[in-house]
Amino acid sequence: MTDSPVTPGVPALAILNQYPTVTLIRQTSQVALMHTCIRDVQTSRLDFVFYSDRLIRLIVEEGLAHLPCAKKDVNTPTGARYEGLMPAAGICGVSIMRAGESMENALRDTCRGVRIGKILIQRNEDTAEPDDRYSYSKLPKDIADRWVFLMDPMLATGGSAIRAVNILLQQYGVKEERIIFVNVVACPEGLTAFCTKFPKIRVVTSAIDDNLNDKKYIIPGLGDFGDRYFGTN
């Protein structure tokens, strides 16, 4: 099979048509291969991390493409002039602990010296929604002056991501339109809740799965990303 585009499923197409702020990375055969590996229950932790890291790098690169740039002309070694670009604003990564920390290395590898903060959102296991009694954040003081890369690999109900954005907006003064949410696997329910609440936030994901089951797990999904990535139960 050549690396040709793979057509997204019906749920994905419906979401993309309804919410223009959602970006699905190009669905190539290589992306499908990576998803096959990380979704397989038989995949070892070593392979899960390897293929997840490959996939996350693609997602982060796509997210960076939505940042503003300024013109910058440089001289090449041939003496010619090249009309190029440079970043127009600083950025900051914010990982939703713990699974979001798996995406930090890809951002560091692509943005030298990037600052990264963390938000912890505890979830009520009975309702699968955030428990507002338990949250923690440690973010750079100048985060309101930067573009924010919010990182969480799974978007199920959308509750944790919505709570994290509310913390950024209400407690740190970040502007909604300066947030880019990067994500590995999402579902229609989570995207609908998130995009309805925050219509100015760009969402970049590598997959939009079918739905949530009655236990609030993404289907077909891949299980608990954090447990599989960090090797814990």
Shape: globular
Instruction: Estimate the strand proportion.
Output: 25-35%
Number of strands: 13
- The CATH class is identified as Alpha Beta
Largest sheet: 7 strands, mixed
- Would you tell me which CATH topology applies? Rossmann fold
Any low-confidence stretches, pLDDT <50, length ≥5? none
SS-based class: alpha/beta
How many structural domains can be distinguished in the coordinates? 1
Can you give a write-up of this model?
By secondary structure, the chain is an alpha/beta fold. It has a single domain, classed as Rossmann fold, CATH 3.40.50.2020. The chain is 33% helix and 28% strand. Strands 1-11-9-7-4-5-6 form a seven-stranded mixed sheet, sandwiched between helices. Strands 2-3 form a two-stranded antiparallel ribbon. It has a two-stranded parallel sheet with strand order 8-10. The longest helix is centred in the first third of the chain and has 20 residues. The chain is globular, with a radius of gyration of 18 Å. The model has no long low-confidence stretch (mean pLDDT 93).
Structure characteristics:
single chain, 233 residues, alpha/beta, Rossmann fold, seven-stranded mixed sheet, two-stranded antiparallel ribbon, 13 strands, 28% strand, PRTase-like, uracil phosphoribosyltransferase activity
